[in-house]
């Protein structure tokens, strides 16, 4: 029992820094009686950089499998990150770090949003891509948020 509680708390700490997505809107792309395919727009706030929000659009599979959460979503995704308030960096950032992940199929495919620090240009670069246990996809999208004058990105 103690091991299970310890494992759960360790997993909670490891996953805590990842952002949580909030669906902003979606549009149907292919009608199905059991649930339409759609493009979903989700927002998430960078958990370590207050004042930066990323918007990810991605395809979602409908139908019975989509409703049950066992369908594999298409690989296509796009990202746009923007300064939405005063920027405050909570702690020194890693040069490259996953800030958001979400499954795109039951167990095999995952969507990633990675924050990359471009220290030379004092800019945060966000990359979205998907991977798969056996094979990944080269389909990706990138966006950048330059730091306001006087704000320097602290690195680990």
Automatic annotation (TrEMBL):
It comes from the Bacteria. It holds the Pfam family CreA. Keywords: Signal. Transmembrane segments: none annotated. Residues 1-21 form the signal peptide. InterPro entries: Uncharacterised_CreA. GO terms for cellular component: cytosol. This is CREA signal peptide protein.
């Amino acid at each position: 029992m103690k091991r299970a509680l310890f494992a759960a708390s360790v997993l909670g700490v490891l996953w805590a820094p990842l952002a949580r997505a909030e669906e902003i809107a979606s549009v149907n792309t292919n009608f199905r009686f059991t649930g339409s395919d759609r493009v979903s727009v989700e927002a998430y706030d960078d958990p370590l950089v207050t004042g930066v929000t990323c918007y990810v659009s991605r395809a979602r599979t409908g139908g019975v499998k989509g409703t049950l959460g066992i369908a594999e979503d298409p690989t296509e995704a796009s990202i746009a990150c923007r300064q939405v308030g005063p920027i405050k960096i909570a702690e020194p950032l890693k040069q490259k770090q996953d800030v958001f992940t979400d499954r795109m199929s039951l167990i095999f495919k995952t969507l990633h949003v990675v924050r990359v620090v471009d220290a030379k240009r004092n800019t945060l670069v966000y990359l979205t891509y998907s991977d798969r246990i056996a094979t990944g996809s080269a389909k990706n999208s990138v966006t950048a948020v330059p730091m306001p004058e006087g704000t320097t990105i602290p690195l680990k």
